[in-house]
Amino acid sequence: MPTMINRQGFTYTEIIFVAFISLFFGGVLMALSMTGQRFYLTSDATVLVQEQARQALINMTQELKQADPAMIAANCAGNACKFQVVLGFGVPPCGAGVACIGAKDAARANQSGWRLRYRLDNGQVLREILDDNDLLKAGTRVLANHVNQLLFSYDPTDRIVTVQVETARTASQLPGRTVSVTPTHTPLAARVRLRNP
User: What pTM was estimated for this model as a whole?
Assistant: First the structure.
């Protein structure tokens, strides 16, 4: 005679217990996934801000190397630096045998007596072109965003300009919009020895 197999199934308590355990582990996996994604987005945004600040330092360094030390000494301190560069010798508009000091305009033409200015404005590092009356001309560029501090100092003995850039990006500005507002600071610095006497 064949034996009967007991096919009662699971009790209600067993089903509730397994469902609870499954939900718990599913929630833990979801929380880990969301934390990983938030960390990735935060890291990506921080790298982007650092990259902009680094590129701004490179641009400033290249132009500051060509600066006229006389103007740097008087106009390069705090969060702004205004200066002129040596455009060349005997180049228009200055004439033959004369060192032409000024800046290039937005069309890249030499302008005697004009100036360049780096400054911090609402978290942006700006590169501005000023005429010989210190009036702002076309050609302003944003070199970096989310900058917390921009400092210039000049050592006339060694003819070295020090530029310090500190970026700060709060978590509320990052993709994912977390509620934390803890800033992440990234100090960068460059020391530039002026080439021109």
Answer: 0.74
